[in-house]
Amino acid sequence: MSRRQVFGIGAALAAGFAATGCGTTQRTVATDQPSSTTTAAASATGDPVMVSQAAPPPPPDNSPAAVVARHAAEQPQRWGTEMPGIISTFAATGKQLALTFDACGGPGNNDIDESLVNFLITQQIPATLFLNKRWIDANPARAAQLGANPLFELANHGVAHKPLSVTGRAAYGIAGTGSAQEAADEVWANHERLTELLGRPPRFFRAGTAHYDDVAVAIVNELGETPVGFSINADYGATASAAKVRSAMNAAAPGAISLAHMHRPQAGTGAGMIAVLPTLRAMGFTFVHL
């Protein structure tokens, strides 16, 4: 058979495939084996060669049960407020600053600093609010109002305000979660509560005390949220005076993430923020969500 005849037969076959909608990909047949596709590639002589390509693997199972099972036997190697997987700063465009405020929830911690929140609204200053499930359950109407305001992004601050650990490691005298299961539960119960409240899942998580081990960081990421730390500790757990809050915030650099609290109206946080945020704005800073 001549070379011209070979090309003629190949052209006829290609036309037949195109007419049936097959193109150059073979029709898939259901089997128990992983599917694959066949595509045409050119050989060194220019003749078509059929190349088989394996189908991409399925996405990982990141259901809470699967995440817990993957990490149940792991031992952490790192502990603290900063490590790979936690964001503590962001890539700023100009002099941008991200304000975050925690509402820790629980006995004595279910209040709200209305003067601070109303100031943010009046001045049109956006912020990311990390709400604990206990705080949401104690303030459902207020939480819904905050979630409906586009100035605020609501984020996950856990269920019991525990450091996120798989060994029970403590921070500031507060015992952490004691296993992969407890760490996932601390994240997921409030993930579901916020999803119900907002109609969409939260994007960010901050552990109680902002402490994590590296296994817990992996668990948060696989559950679909990003662990958040801070680069400015603005009010030291709502214990700082207004003057100390102002001093901490005045050291802000572009791309900083500040950590303060919104559940203690008697603390110096509100007065300090109300005094310093207009100054930062006058210095050219703009405030953005994470």
TrEMBL record:
Which residues lie in Low complexity bias regions? 35-54
Q: Where is the NodB homology domain?
A: 95-290
Tell me which UniProt keywords the record has, alphabetically. Signal
The residues the entry assigns to the signal sequence are 1-20
User: Which organism is the protein's source?
Assistant: Nocardia iowensis
**Superkingdom of this entry's organism?**
Bacteria
- Disordered: region residues: 27-65
Can the keyword Membrane be found in this entry's annotation? no
Annotated protein name in UniProt: Polysaccharide deacetylase family protein
Query: Could you tell me which Pfam families the record lists for this protein?
Result: Polysacc_deac_1
The answer to whether keyword Signal applies is yes
For this protein, the record's PANTHER family field holds: GLYCOSYL TRANSFERASE-RELATED, SECRETED PROTEIN
List the InterPro entries.
Answer: NODB_dom (IPR002509), Polysacc_deacetylase_ArnD (IPR050248)
